[in-house]
Structure formats: structure tokens, C-alpha cells
Amino acid sequence: MLLKNVHRFGLDNPPEGTEGQISAVMGNYDYWHYLCDSFDDRGWGCGYRTLQTISSWIIHHFYDKKLPKVESIHKYQAILSSLGQEINEESCSWIGTVEACMIIDLLYKIPCKILHCKSAADIHSHIPDILSHFSNFGAPLMMGGENDHNSKGIFGIARKGRKIEDTYLLIVDPHYASEIADPVKARKFVYWKALSELETGFYNLLMPLSYNRPE
Fold first, then answer.
1. 203-208 and 112-117: which strand pairing?
2. Average pLDDT for the chain
3. pLDDT digits (tens, 9 = 90+) for 160-174
4. Can you give the residue ranges of the UFSP1/2/DUB catalytic domain (predicted)?
5. Rounded mean pLDDT of 176-195?
6. How far is the C-alpha of 191 from the C-alpha of 170, rounded, in Å?
7. How many domains does the chain have?
8. Lower Cβ count inside 10 Å, N or C end of the chain?
9. 3-state secondary structure of 58
10. Which residues are catalytic?
11. What is the CA radius of gyration of the chain?
């Protein structure tokens, strides 16, 4: 059994001073994380888990369409290999935003925009784009970085001012490792993080453009 809509743990406890200044994902999804399907991907599977979470959002969002189910990590690897990516099925090869974009486009016919940000300050300059994304599409984002190798979902944004330290991302972290869906333990992997606390180096943000409904 997968937990649903875990970002609400964060919405219930927003950063001080940001109440009423929050934009977030719209709709439902399932929270995929390490070991959730009894497959041990600890240490390398976070990108796949974030992809699975976003895929579940797409399926819930387009509930009246016959869309492919959320696939296993091995199935994603087989698909990427068939597309010419140097990823072998049943390997421990991790993926990032580019590979996730390919999967979402192929399986769900939904294009994605990849926002390449040279630094946290560059992410800050794109806050209007992120706010617009949540307002227009309501879809979760996937984020990974040059020095921050841990893939994560971005499910909201909060601001209490216009400075970088006043802007927070609501992170749904797939590194919760458990075969048992325990909401008490899982809530530790849902948290707000100030942009000023991000690692140095570039970040890529994957933004599913879900307004175009799959046929």
C-alpha cells in the first residue's frame, strides 16, 4: 500500500511567515520511495522513484484515459535501453531529468520542459516560471543537481519575501526506505528547504506540461 499526497505534511507546517503565500501541486498521486514495492534500489534508484511518483500523478490527473500503469524500475531501464541510452536492464544505473523526460513523453505523450539553472540564485530568478507552472499545470517537478545527486520531487513553493533566503521549496524525498507505508516515518522525508540552503553547482528541473491531455 502506497501513501498518497504526502506533500500535505508540508502544507500543514509551512515555513514561518509564508502562510497564504504558497503555491503547490494540484491533484492526487502516490508516493513511491525506496523499497516500496519490495525492490531494493537504495543508493541509486531515487530518480526512478521520483519518476514513478510523477507518473502516478499523471495517471490520477487523467483518470478518464487509458494510460499505462506506473512501471517497475527494470521496465524503465528496458525502455531507456531501447531508446539508445547506455542503461542496462537490472543494473544499478541511476537516471536524471533527461531520462525521466523521455519516459514521460513516450508513455504518456506529455512533453516536459527542463529548466537548467546554473545555481540556486538562478533557480531564484526562475521563481515566476515555477509559480506559473503550478498555477497552469499543477504537476510535480523533478529536481537533481551537479553536486546534489539526490533526485527529489518539488511539490510546492513558499515565499515570505523576495530574497533567496525567503524562498522555500516543498520537497518530497524518495529516500524513505521501507516496505511498510508508515506516515509517521514518511513525514520526515517531506520538508521545506530554503533556496539558500541548496548545494553549489547547477540544477535541472523537469516540468511536465500536463495541460495537453493525452489522447
1. antiparallel
2. 94
3. 998 999 999 999 999
4. 21-206
5. 97
6. 6
7. 1
8. C
9. helix
10. 46, 173, 175
11. 16
